[in-house]
Design goal:
Radius of gyration: 16 Å
CATH topology: TIM Barrel
Shape: globular
Helix content: 25-40%
Bound molecules: D-xylitol-5-phosphate, zinc ion
Strand order of the largest sheet: 1-8-7-6-5-4-3-2
Order of helices and strands: EHEHEHEHEEHEHEHH
Largest sheet: 8 strands, parallel
Length: 224
């Protein structure tokens, strides 16, 4: 597994970045210290929204890798197994699929690892942790969604903090625990205290103000 997933850090989500100035926005957060860039892929089927695909990952990869960072790709799509190879070739370092989209989850996780990427599983807010009783031994990362996936800027679902605490106890120590949705200065320290080590932040980094400064403020809130 890539080392960065073992650290406790803020992963800026480019979903809320300025797509016309994507490179500029990524440089700003990386200059401020970001090392894990979160990329939200949506297909208009698994979630209502449509966002970006492998070409954007490929375009970002030299920039992110060149600065010592990694690409954390969150697939909110049906049939993710069809796209694993493409995203891995494009430069994804971690690939996370949704439990709800994968009747053959064990096979998909194996495919991801064979592609060379770290294998993640995401759970929607209404999906119990127990659905991962077997898969927890076959993945590198579990992503607890703290909003219903599909859009940036939604409010954090308060019960997610308890879910993270339970998840940390339920998962093997070597499995990273990521939280995604509504992460802000108001809750980030509590989420780390609950056991999350990867904190995805979209609108709290990119929607308003200087992204570098906003990233640095979030990073400072979880430091030490
Ligand atoms: C939502 C995405 C998130 C999104 C989070 O479906 O998976 O990664 O960018 O955005 P914020 O941080 O604004 O809730
Ligand atoms: Zn995401």
């Amino acid at each position: 597994m890539i080392d960065v997933l073992r650290e406790t850090l803020i992963a800026p989500s480019i979903l809320s970045a300025d797509f016309g100035r994507l490179e500029e926005d990524v440089v700003k957060v990386m200059d401020a210290g970001a090392r894990l860039i979160h990329v939200d892929v949506m297909d208009g089927h698994f979630v209502p929204n449509i966002t970006i695909g492998p070409p954007v990952v490929a375009a970002l990869a030299p920039l992110v890798h060149g600065r010592g960072g990694a690409l954390d790709v969150h697939l909110m799509i049906e049939h993710p197994e069809r796209y694993v190879a493409q995203f891995a070739q494009a430069g994804a370092d971690a690939l996370t699929v949704h439990q709800e989209a994968c009747p053959h989850l064990h096979r998909v996780l194996g495919l991801i690892r064979e592609s060379g990427a770290a294998a993640g599983v995401a759970l929607n807010p209404a999906t119990p942790l127990e659905t991962l009783t077997e898969a927890r031994r076959h993945c590198d990362l579990v992503l607890v969604m703290s909003v219903n996936p599909g859009f940036g800027g939604q409010s954090f679902i308060a019960t997610s903090t308890d879910k993270l605490r339970t998840a940390r106890a339920f998962l093997p120590a070597e499995v990273a625990l990521e939280v995604d949705g509504g992460v802000s200065l108001d809750n980030v320290a509590a989420l780390v205290a609950a056991g999350a080590n990867l904190l995805v932040a979209g609108s709290s980094v990119f929607a308003g103000g200087d992204p570098g400064r906003r990233f640095a403020d979030l990073a400072a809130a979880i430091a030490g």
